[in-house]
Amino acid sequence: MDFGIKTHTGMLALMTTLLCCLSGALGKDNCDSPLVSSLPQTSFNSSSQLSNTHSPGFAKLNRRDGAGGWSPLESDKYQWLEIDLGERTEVTAIATQGRYGSSDWVTSYLLMFSDTGRNWKQYRQEDSIWAFSGNTNADSVVQYKLQQSVIARFLRVLPLDWNSNGRLGMRLEVYGCPYKSDVASFDGSSSLLYRFSQNSSQTAKDVISMQFKTLHNSGIIMHGEGREGHSLTLELHKGKLLLHIKTGKARSMSLENQNLLTLGSLLDDQHWHSVVIERVNRHINFTVDKNTQQFEINGDLSHSDTNNELSFGGIPGHGKSRTFSKRNFHGCLENLLYNDVNVIDLAKLKHHVTASGDVTFACSEPTNVPVTFLGPESYLQLPGPLPKEILSVSLHFRTWNKAGLLMTTEMYQHAGSLWLYLSEGKVKLQISKSGRILADATAGSSLNDGQWHSVGLNARRGRISLTVDKEAGSAAHASSPFHVASGNNLLFWR
Ligand SMILES: *[C@@H]1O[C@H](CO)[C@@H](O)[C@H](O)[C@H]1NC(C)=O
Ligand SMILES: *[C@@H]1O[C@H](CO)[C@@H](O)[C@H](O)[C@H]1NC(C)=O
Ligand SMILES: *[C@@H]1O[C@H](CO)[C@@H](O)[C@H](O)[C@H]1NC(C)=O
């Protein structure tokens, strides 16, 4: 008897050990641990709640606490449920369920994610915003594996549709695993210099990978140069990434030695983008997010002898290279790996890496974040009442479209309507009443170039000014004296 129990315990211990190590070994591939069930109530937030027992903290899968799930006060498409995972985490799957013992469930929803809870990105799949299929009853769990995993601290579920004979209600779980992140922030005048001992000209293969996030459209992300005029530069230029490789010794200015690749667009959107540069002999794969360009280096590689240093975020001491603007990168770099060496880790240890200027190892978000208007029906509405005598609006926009409405408002006391819009790539302002134009102004040109532009509008007691990119537009033409003051409901369109 005793003997039997002992064996049993021994076997259990052995099995536990096996299970431990098995799951440890599989940890990397099996990124599917439940992330929500252990979170405290304070990690949940929502647009509203039907009652205290319907609060978002009850939205955990298979739980029956409170009213058995979250339900918002109103069932409409302006509701959301938010989860704070505590730190940036890799999310690979999501599962939903209706509210326990009710006829409340969500039949389709969108997913958004964010690092900070302020600047959100839509989950996309197959190149469009992805609507997930939800539930058809209160109890069955519908699980969905994400085609691309998401790295985020905050997740938001936006119900699109729900049981027509019930309310909007849900419980959920998300699955994933910890995400290791080493970040460095550059302020536009700082950089990191990495000195290494390997002879890179003699390695057959080089791999550089990183993620970056910025609101600034230009700046040098990486630069290395050799004694013989050979150089490698990765630069963000007007929202696109340029990879410039110069080879060889002879005729260093000749075009044969110049290699320029361009990838991506609108990358200065304060969301993470990944870059991978792989070289095998003369062959280069340059990957930005999901797009890869394959390329064969022109020119003589045999003299491509580097100084065994690479700089990140800028060119320290304003390098010898004259091909590039001297603008430093302003933003965050994450998980910067050069041939499997974690450069940011080394920088933290001040080991082989020297920082110049202000480099910090955290990524803070600017106070202003952009919003994207994805379709002609999307707009933002600011409810009134606004100050009556003064209208002062400033905004930044970017678009590839030649025409579109930026803002409109009805003026105070039926004085007319104000329209601020883009037409033929110019910003136009028009104030009209009963089909009669009271004032108009135009500023800027070719503004539909995908770059950020600023617009300022100031109206006060019959005077109105319009500025684009800090330059005043044509003076407003008033066909008759008019009274400018804003009314209710300022609307912003794209
Ligand atoms: C919940 O969301 C609301 C609205 O966005 C916000 O004002 C509030 O601070 C959030 N609460 C928590 C605990 O994050
Ligand atoms: C780098 O190459 C030089 C010349 O080819 C050689 O003398 C040196 O030992 C090499 N260094 C390393 C670390 O391989
Ligand atoms: C580039 O990618 C292709 C396709 O994945 C692969 O076959 C090739 O080996 C890669 N080349 C380099 C230089 O990494």
Walk me through this protein's architecture.
- Residues 183-363, 369-494 form the Laminin G domain.
- Belongs to the neurexin family.
- This protein has 494 residues and is mainly beta.
- It folds into three domains: 33-178, Galactose-binding domain-like (Jelly Rolls, Sandwich); 183-360, Jelly Rolls; 379-493, Jelly Rolls (Sandwich).
- The protein is built from two helices and 36 strands.
- Strands 1, 2, 3, 4, 5, 8, 9 and 10 form an eight-stranded antiparallel beta sheet that branches. Strands 11, 13, 18, 19, 20, 22, 23 and 25 form an eight-stranded antiparallel beta sheet that branches. A seven-stranded antiparallel beta sheet has the order 17-16-15-14-21-12-24.
- Strand 6 (124-125) and strand 7 form a beta hairpin.
- The longest helix has 25 residues, at 2-26.
- The protein binds 2-acetamido-2-deoxy-beta-D-glucopyranose (3 copies).
- One 2-acetamido-2-deoxy-beta-D-glucopyranose binds at residues 278-280, 283-285, 294.
Present as ligands are: 2-acetamido-2-deoxy-beta-D-glucopyranose
- The structural class is mainly beta
The number of E-state strands comes to 36
Text of the CATH class of the largest domain: Mainly Beta
| Radius of gyration, taken over Cα atoms and rounded to an integer in Å | 28 Å
Low-pLDDT segments: 1-27, 477-491
Number of domains: 3
Question: Can you lay out the helices and strands and say which pair or pack?
Answer:
Layout: H1 2-26, E1 33-34, E2 44-46, E3 81-97, E4 106-114, E5 121-122, E6 124-125, E7 128-129, E8 132-133, E9 142-162, E10 171-178, E11 183-187, E12 191-195, E13 205-213, E14 219-225, E15 231-237, E16 240-246, E17 258-263, E18 273-280, E19 283-288, E20 291-296, E21 309-312, E22 330-338, E23 341-342, H2 343-348, E24 353-356, E25 359-360, E26 379-382, E27 390-397, E28 404-410, E29 417-423, E30 426-433, E31 436-443, E32 453-460, E33 463-468, E34 471-472, E35 477-478, E36 490-493
Antiparallel strand pairs: 1-10, 2-3, 3-9, 3-10, 4-5, 4-8, 4-9, 6-7, 11-22, 11-25, 12-21, 12-24, 13-18, 13-22, 14-15, 14-21, 15-16, 16-17, 18-19, 19-20, 22-23, 26-36, 27-32, 28-29, 28-36, 29-30, 30-31, 31-35, 32-33, 33-34
The chain binds 2-acetamido-2-deoxy-beta-D-glucopyranose (NAG) (3 copies).
The site of one 2-acetamido-2-deoxy-beta-D-glucopyranose has 3 residues, from loops.
